[in-house]
Amino acid sequence: DAKTTQPNSMESNEEEPVHLPCNHSTISGTDYIHWYRQLPSQGPEYVIHGLTSNVNNRMASLAIAEDRKSSTLILHRATLRDAAVYYCILGNYGGSQGNLIFGKGTKLSVKP
Amino acid sequence: EAQVTQNPRYLITVTGKKLTVTCSQNMNHEYMSWYRQDPGLGLRQIYYSMNVEVTDKGDVPEGYKVSRKEKRNFPLILESPSPNQTSLYFCASIGLAEMHNEQFFGPGTRLTVL
């Protein structure tokens, strides 16, 4: 399974933008890039996903490098509610379909 | 509201006492799965089901059973629980037509086996 590498932790101030990096140098051409987050005492929550082009939704933006070997999740204005563990996951639905391989993620702390 | 529900949310039991954790989704999803989450190991898939009466092993299936008699329900069965099955369990679902999209997770079941 393709692996991702994320920093263990990051800090941000409230109301400021946050850029969460993810390296996935062994990504294959059919791997989607997913981001999920897990708030304390809750199940994982979908944030965003993409294949090749940058993506925006109401929660965040996803910037994908041209060679697809890295991506960045962008939270435009961090709030206290955004404090969570963020997981960057590669999904290829040919084999164990739907099995998301969660790594250790990045623990984001948001300071008021 | 689209959701995945799990029951119970918390359970303390003893070794060997059979238990079932229920999972239900209201989105008519074909695909459902169970994960366990342990400190330092992340989430690992236990079993998954592509549709009614179709189940298959994930990465850590030992000691667990599942069934899929109805599309909305996917119970996780521990026939003889052991302390190493103490963990946080999540059920998830997604529609087959949108497999690369959002997977929905339940709120979790924290199981302690004494």
Account of the 3D structure:
The complex is a heterodimer of chains A (112) and B (114). By secondary structure, chain A is mainly β. Helices cover 0% and strands 45% of the residues of chain A. Chain A has strands at 9-13, 18-23, 32-38, 45-50, 55-56, 61-64, 70-75, 84-91, 106-111. The mean pLDDT of chain B is 94. Chain B is mainly beta. The N and C termini of chain B lie far apart (36 Å). In chain B, strands 2, 4, 5, 6, 9, 10 and 11 form a seven-stranded mixed β-sheet that branches. Chain B has strands spanning 4-7, 10-13, 19-25, 31-38, 42-51, 54-57, 65-66, 76-78, 87-94, 104-105, 109-113. In chain B, 0% of the residues lie in helices and 50% in strands. Chains A and B meet through strand 4 of A and strand 4, strand 5, strand 9 and strand 10 of B.
- Overall mean pLDDT of chain B: 94
What's the number of extended β-strand segments of chain B?
Answer: 11
Rg from alpha-carbon coordinates of chain A? 13 Å
Q: Tell me which protein chains meet in the greatest interface and how many residues each side has.
A: A-B, 21 and 26 residues
Number of helices of chain B: 0
Largest sheet of chain B: 7 strands, mixed
Number of strands of chain A: 9
Structural class of chain B: mainly beta
Low-pLDDT windows of residues of chain B:
none
Helix content of chain A: under 10%
Mean pLDDT of chain A: 90
Rg of chain B, Å, rounded: 13 Å
H/E series of chain B, N to C? EEEEEEEEEEE
Bulk shape of chain B: globular
* Oligomeric organization of the protein chains: heterodimer
End-to-end gap of chain B: 36 Å
> Within the largest sheet of chain A, what's the order of strands?
1-9-8-3-4
